[in-house]
Sequence to fold (174 residues):
Amino acid sequence: MLRTSNYSLVLSLQFLLLIYDLFVNSFSELLRMAPVIQLVLFIIQDIAILFNIIIIFLMFFNTFVFQAGLVNLLFHKFKGTIVLSAAYLVLSIAFHIWVMNLRWKNSTCFVWTDGLQALFVFQRLGKGQAPSWTPTDTHRPQPQSKQWAGPICFPCTLPRLGLSLLGNGSSTFP
Fold:
């Protein structure tokens, strides 16, 4: 089970990977004169993104919700994070391959096609949500005693619609 001291180490590792990702995204264009260095930075960046996704799933496996067999509920709640992280990884790999193919032979010339610019924008937009996971009510430290700790509550995020919104003029809730 993941203890509080180990969790801070995992969170620090995720922040370190995120900072490296931000650094490579910000400054990789400055290294276009040295394509081998840029290639190594891109490979390390893709591996860091993959490690971040692996860490997300390892954090899922350490929750009581997952251990209680409510995997579907857990994946439904974090579906956006999972899909966005996978999409960001795929877009990053595609962008890196395209950039290296265009600039490998002639690194002194600044090559930027319309398709590469579109992929660049989509890859940066895919980073809209960081591929990290923060603790919520689904991740609690394991109780040391064998007493019942109470139910795990999931707040309802669906708004209650009043009948007045349906057009009959009443202001009561269903």
About this structure: Helices lie at 4-27, 35-61, 64-67, 71-77, 79-103, 114-125. The chain has a mean pLDDT of 76. The CA atoms of residues 95 and 119 lie 6 Å apart. The radius of gyration is 22 Å.
